[in-house]
Please model this.
Amino acid sequence: MLDEIIASLFPDGHEVRRDKGVILGSATLRSGVRMLVLGVADRTALGVDEAIRLSGHVLDSIGRDSGPILVLVDSDSQRMSKRDELLGLNEFLAHLAKVLIHADTNGRPTIGLLYGHSAAGALLATGLATRVLVGLPGAEPAVMDLPSMAKVTKLSMEALQEKAKSTPVFAPGLSNLAQMGAVHMIWSNAASLADQLEALLVDLPAARDQRDALGKERGGRLKAAEIAERVRDLALQVR
Amino acid sequence: MTAPLKDVAPAERARSTSFYEASARTRLELLLDAGSLIEFIGPGQREVSPHLKIFDLPEQFDDGIVVGHGRLDGSPVFVAAQEGRFMGGAFGEVHGAKLTGLLRAAREIGTVPVLVLFDTGGVRLQEANAGELAIAEIMRAVMEARSAGVKVIGLIGGRSGCYGGGGLIAGCCSALAVSEPGRIAVSGPEVIETNRGVEEFDSRDRALVWRTMGGKHRRLLGAADVFADDNVQDFREAALELLGLVGPFGLDRLKAEQDRLAGRLRSFGACGDAIDIWTAEGIADAQAVPELPADQFIALANRIGRTSRDAR
Amino acid sequence: MEDLSFRHPVRARAGGARRSAIVGVVASGNLEVLVERVLPDAECAVEIKTAAVGFGEVWSAVIGDFVERYSPGGLKFSINDGGARPDTVSLRLAQAVRLIAENGQ
Model:
């Protein structure tokens, strides 16, 4: 599936390789611009070994290239292991996110493309660290899966599914994350991905984080934008 | 003879108050110059989570976080303190948005630092999508503030530690101070055990938890640059020390961090336990590290000299 | 969750100058009390949201004792309760009255 997606995104050619669940490479847009490509494939857990390769790929490109950056995501959660935590997984994941955020705010716009699964820390370090997060139909992000949630809340799966009908705030799924403002848009599988990518690049939103406003507009997150704005105003007044 | 509490000098009270045991409000009261805290959207505003009622759960008037402005040795600072006892200090929509707004203001001002007193299990399960996104927004806001010249200091020593997305936000900060009980990790012990089995991680083995995720290990790795004893005065002094150490943020920091973390994998990637890492660091009696009192541990950590200064 | 509300006539105005104060946290077996000086001097109100359903009579007794003992005139107490025992409730209410009686904002 990843091969088809890459072929549809970059009909003019690409050098994108997949190695132990990590996607690294670059591709040529029809405009001739080189786009840096990275990501996580095959529902691989994002651990220290994967994260350091991804951040290194972006850092190597800074100063050498000038094009936008695409982050493809079909991951598991962060790798849950003693070794990863022992070595400071939080620093590795934060570092990857920081590198992506820095690139985005310094002339290298970042786009996330969620085409499979993702969850928790892996999503924070990849798709949610990009300027625009796009979902492909069939993608299934899950911040928290319902069985785990059932265990902690001591509610039945049926009760949780019933509650999920009235709110996008906790249940997994692409449409819920879109309503929250986390996923900016959902592309069509029927049309050329290259066309949709280039349309997005032509009309890219500003680097400013507006996901809270988007979540309010879509009715999924009614409080966040207002609370952040009120605190900001109060903090600016205190001087 | 015991004097009434309010007659005790503030520094003495801060020295005798456990950071771990104190509430978020008490931490701030004793960390900042006396009486200097101005809270934004305090409990009287009743801006509670709009989502907990779906689960028939009690709300807290401040949604588990205090944000505001205060003074530290006379200088202005923005502060945020999570209450680790309410919903495990977890990030929900309102809770997270308060910190985001604070960081956005700090970015616009550019010169007033931000102290974040972490005490969190990560994303609040009952509003998982909103909490996850709030963390993503906070990470971005931290980096934009740092790029604008703001120092963002994390203080970690609360009962809920600094887990999940909280660990990622901590990784974005300019510098961290941590105490021994201040655990920093992404996956919590129970989460690892549930997903991977007790052979991978025995969450009831508290010694294992402390040496894998606890403050001493994080200090020895250089993830935290200052180790604080578990009292509020020590954290106040740590914050002042770090504010003096932190330099401007830029691409060079990220390149240095890449080298720092890659070097850590090369040096310690094959180690199976914290004891192995400490031994590889040249600590003769690594087994004794968990028992070392704070002053001896600080001397040891300074001798080892691992730091993330200028490399985060 | 259960909502409870109590109003009592009070002998005297509560001391101090602060407008509001907060004590406690919402956790299992614990509660937070927000106290605000917003009522006429001869009144006191207590509004409770509690996770422990069906304890209205216990609350009524605890609050009756509290009002009798502290005479918190002019104060409105708002409580978020995570299922605290009566002695914890009494303690927090007393702390709240003491705190608002201090000098300050």
Remarks:
- Residues 5-249 of chain B form a domain with the 2-enoyl-CoA Hydratase; Chain A, domain 1 fold (CATH 3.90.226.10).
- Strands of chain B lie at 38-40, 65-72, 75-82, 114-118, 152-156, 175-179, 226-228.
